[in-house]
């Protein structure tokens, strides 16, 4: 077996979807978008990075803003600094908490993921 096949479990990670029961749904798409906004300083640039239509990106952010009852992303227009989009303290906290949860789940599930990938690697071609 080639070494890249035996290490395939390193590429497999669980994806977490959280529904709060209060109309807030948090998952990989929204979190990836928040990460991209934090990196690019722009909803449009973040959407391009994720190959997502701008309208979809805006709707995802709006659903988080509505769900939490306050903004997770804020925009500043023009001016001397050129404006931009940034995560609010709530958005930063949401991203930080989700990332920490994701890491804990990945760490705790690594043995099971390796075992599942090993089973898949044994399947006939």
TrEMBL record:
Under the heading Gene3D superfamilies, the entry gives: Winged helix-like DNA-binding domain superfamily/Winged helix DNA-binding domain (1.10.10.10)
A GO MF term: DNA-binding transcription factor activity
Q: So which domain of life are we looking at?
A: Bacteria
Q: Where is the HTH lysR-type domain?
A: 32-92
Q: Which InterPro entries match?
A: LysR_HTH_N, Molybdate_resp_trans_reg, WH-like_DNA-bd_sf, WH_DNA-bd_sf
Which portions of this protein are annotated as coiled-coil regions?
none
Q: Name one Pfam family in it.
A: HTH_1
Residues crossing the lipid bilayer are none
PANTHER family, per database record: DNA-BINDING TRANSCRIPTIONAL DUAL REGULATOR MODE, TRANSCRIPTIONAL REGULATOR MODE
Q: What is this protein called?
A: LysR family transcriptional regulator
Per the UniProt entry, what species is this protein from, by scientific name?
Answer: Methylotuvimicrobium buryatense (Methylomicrobium buryatense)
| Lineage of source species | Bacteria, Pseudomonadati, Pseudomonadota, Gammaproteobacteria, Methylococcales
């Amino acid at each position: 077996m080639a070494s890249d096949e035996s290490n395939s479990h390193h590429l497999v990670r669980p994806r977490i979807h959280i529904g709060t029961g209060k109309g807030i749904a948090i998952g990989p798409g929204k979190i990836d978008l928040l990460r991209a906004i934090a990196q690019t300083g722009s909803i449009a640039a973040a959407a391009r990075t994720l190959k997502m239509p701008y309208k979809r990106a805006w709707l995802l952010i709006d659903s988080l803003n509505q769900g939490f009852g306050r903004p997770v992303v804020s925009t500043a227009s023009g001016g001397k600094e050129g404006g931009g989009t940034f995560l609010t303290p709530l958005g930063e906290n949401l991203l930080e908490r989700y990332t920490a949860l994701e890491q804990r789940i990945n760490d705790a599930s690594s043995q099971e993921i390796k075992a599942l990938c090993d089973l898949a690697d044994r399947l006939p071609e």
